[in-house]
Amino acid sequence: YRRLFLLLSENQYFRLNTYLMGSMDSRKELTQQTLHAEPIIAPILTETLENELLDLSEFKLLEQADFEVYCAPTPKMPQMMREIGRVREESFRDVGEGSGLSCDVDLFDPNYHQLFVWHKTNRELVGAYRLGLVDELIEQGGIHALYSTSLFKYDEAFIKTLGCSIELGRSVVAKQYQRNMHSLLLLWKGIASFVQRNPKYTHLFGPVSISNDYSPVARQLIASVMSVHYYDNDKAKLVSPTTPLERNDQEFWRPDMLSSLSQLPLLSKVLSRLERGIGIPVLLKQYLSMNGKLVCFNVDPAFNYTLDGLIVVDLTSVPEKKLGKYMGYDNAVKYQLAHKKM
Prior knowledge:
The chain is 39% helix and 20% strand. The chain is α+β, with helices and mostly antiparallel strands and 342 residues long. The chain has a single domain (2-25, 34-340), classed as Aminopeptidase (3-Layer(aba) Sandwich), CATH 3.40.630.30. The longest helix has 21 residues, at 2-22. The protein is globular, with a radius of gyration of 20 Å.
């Protein structure tokens, strides 16, 4: 039976490839909306940022060669927040996203923590992540204090399924550090270090973007494959989009055809052919490698119509070797063992 299934999957894979290649002529259909974008602010003076860093020593999570990783409440770092906002907008516009504002800092930022990497020798920001401590945010402002409620409809019933959780978002790496995975690795080491210091947190969740660099058919394909192979159907019943992804006329595949794309390398290969070298979004691949599960998709009109998937990662079920890559193997074993005893 397994051999028959593999044969059927292989045939479906080739059929799907054939159909997708036939759609390439229309892949340039416009998805990006015209934005009347404001000019991006100038970089914050290096001396100003370094002076602020002197007051953030208690928030330093780790140091590796020339890189320092911090995670601090936003009010503690107003100048670095502006620099993060500048780098966000610059980087997001490059991939067909962006707020269109001169500095991407929103109404949620002041109540969140900002995790960021600083290069000591180059004296510049490398990348950043936004962390929302869900228990604290809800206590302060209720469920709508969470950024993701602006994209997805859910209530406390969904949050309760996550235990003690952290909302992640606004992941960004500065242009000059995007050539390799080291910067993203450092950000994830920072997240793991924060969790290790605050071990009550067991789940990460938040929107992961599929940018307008992808054609409409590719975005539909990614959403369809995720819905078949990487979905938490129970949690999905508790979440709905504020702006649903509209079905495209080019969505010609059937669910059974998608069975051939259960392996991420195959999906990435198909996307790479369809998108002229662009495979699975890096951050989506990162979450999936940690057993992340999607629960909903939404289109964000306020962020240049980016497609967002709401994804959930249960850190207590991530393979020890994988979690150990970021937290350190012994720390990962200790963390997961402590939660198994609860």
